[in-house]
Every structure is written in structure tokens, then in C-alpha cells.
Design brief:
CATH architecture of the largest domain: 2-Layer Sandwich
CATH topology of the largest domain: Gyrase A, domain 2
Distance between the termini: 53 Å
Number of helices: 8
Helix content: 10-25%
Number of domains: 3
Radius of gyration: 21 Å
CATH superfamily of the largest domain: Probable tRNA modification gtpase trme, domain 1
CATH class of the largest domain: Alpha Beta
Length: about 375
Amino acid sequence: MTMRRRTPLYPLYDEQPSVRCIDFAGWELPVQFAGIVKEHEAVRHAAGLFDVSHMGRLIVTGIFAEAFLQHLTTNDVTQLKDGRAQYSLLCSPIGGIIDDLLVYRLSADQYMLVVNAANTATDLEWLREHLIGDVTIEDHTETTALIALQGPDAEVILAGLAGSYAKAITTLAPFQFKADVPIAGASALVSRTGYTGEDGFELYTSAEDAPALWRELLQAGAHIGLQPAGLGARDTLRLEAKLPLHGHELSASITPLEAGLRAFVKLDKGSFIGRKALLTQLADGGPFRRLVGIEVLERGIPRSGCDVYTNGGVQAGYVTSGTHSPSLKRNIGLALLSVEYAELGTELIVDVRGTQHKAVVVPTPFYRRASFSPRR
């Protein structure tokens, strides 16, 4: 029997009496600590703390690191400066999505890639197959930990533990980061990206320092309502914000153009893997499928893989993700549909385990938080 991998924070899970763990991409991870809805609402109204140490962390080094990543990823790496990150994608030569990832520029010749747990080994192999010049790649997943603090009160909690470095945190704009920040006795790279639709921070620290940092964060936020949160709440939160999940909205059979990620595909930056196929898709009049939001109007929750039909019985596509929205109290989902059935207001039928439910195409994101400006 294959042993599941465990993060440096695994020994602390049992400090939460209602924790329930599952196998996720070969990792033993909490799906919930106190309940998905409770954790979801904590992130929307106060803050939630996520152990996301299962995400892959790869360090790319060398004087040709920028050129290498420019050729492998869809976004424009040359636009990054030290202390900035960008969302990007790895594509196959036929334009399908190998993975989505974050690219952090640590320095002119060193970058950190944060990739999906299920794809870390595949991504690493793909990247190494295409190495150029002096570029090297190291997998730091096992030696580091990744904690995500998300929610409207995340900044207050984190700044309170940062002492004289508080301003370095509160002045971070989205997709900026600061390395070597002392937080409650640990040294962390702190970034401001997020995967919940709320403001929030990621703390990259050593595996040894992670447990004490986790405890300090929970203690500092307890009076505000900070809750440890698991994979269940992470999924409902990201779905309300229309943030894609690999294996659902993103896959080898879906292109970034079909997934609505054109903003992260810089076709004018020059050659990169998948560019020719994406240009061909556009030249042929595509994309012919579109990722849209749907709402089921009856009692039925759309689930991944459910078929979607027109009122006339023509198959329009399929559901990629779905849930009962804790914030909106509605049954929502994302669906990949043929473009002729993807317009707002289009009435549809979703087949949920053999039962037909009325649905309609609705605007996304389903949930949008109030905008914020970093403190100066």
C-alpha cells in the first residue's frame, strides 16, 4: 500500500477535534476542520488559514532562466521585476493546458514556480526536457511549507505579527512579494496573490519553522474569528470567484482561450510552446467552446461531469465544477459550452444523476469582493 505524503503541518491537524482528512493527489490533507460552510464564511467575513504545502515549489536558476521560462510559459516573463509574480500556464504543442502556475521573480537569474500538487512530477519532467543553457531546476516542495492566510482581516492578523516589518506587508500590491520577512520567529517569503476571491497572503517558510508559525497565526487571529480551513472551503471559495482548477476547468484537452484565460496568453511576445496551435485556433474562427457560469434554478447541484443540454435536447457541453454557494445560497457551476449556447440568459438543462434540472447562463464571477488599495 502506497503511503500518502504529509505536509510539515500534518501533526497539528489533530489539534482540531473535528478534522477530516482525505487523499488528495497522493497527499493526506484536511477536507475540513470544523465544517466547510463555517470555514467558507470565516474567509468571507474574517479570515481562514490554509495548509497548502502540497503545492509544488520549483526553483529555476541560471542566466538563461528568463529565456527558458519565456519559451515554456504563456505569459510574458520579461515584464516581471524582482519582487513580482504573475499567473501563467504551461501548454502542450497542441495548445492544451499542462498546468497553471505562479511565476515569482526572485532575481534576474532565479525564479520560483508554484505548481499544482497533482502535476508537480509531470511539470518537473516537462521543464527538464526543455532545459537550455545553464538553467537548473530544484524541487523545494519537501523542504519548505506554504501557508495561505485569506480573508478581509488577513492583513491585520499578519501585520500584528510582523513588528517593524508590518509596513512591508501592508504596502504589498496584488502579485507582489517580499522575501526574508520575520514573522513570529520564522523567516518567510510573503506574497499577496490568493485563491479565494478575498484579500490574502501566502507565507513560504522552512518545513521546520512552519508548525510554530501556524500556531502563532491561529492564536493571533482567534479573537477576530480566524479559522483553519480545508480543501472543501477552498473549493467553494474559488468557485464563487470563478478561479479555475486544473483537472476541471483546465486540462490537456482545453486551451487557455476556451478557458477564458486569454489575458494570460501573450501571443505577441514571440515564440512559446503552444503558440502556433493557439494562433491556428483563432485563425479558424475559434475558440468554439467557452467557459461560462450557470445557475441551476431548481433543487439540484451541478457536479463536475454533468451533461448540459439545450431545451431542445441538443448537448451543449458539460459542467466542469459545481456547488451550492454558501455565500449566495444558490446552486452554481462552471460549464464548458459550445459558443452558440454560451450567451448570458441562455436557458439550459443540466442532467444531475439522471434527473433534468432547469438552468441558465449567468454572469461571473458569482461573487466579487469590494476592491482594496494597499496601504502606503
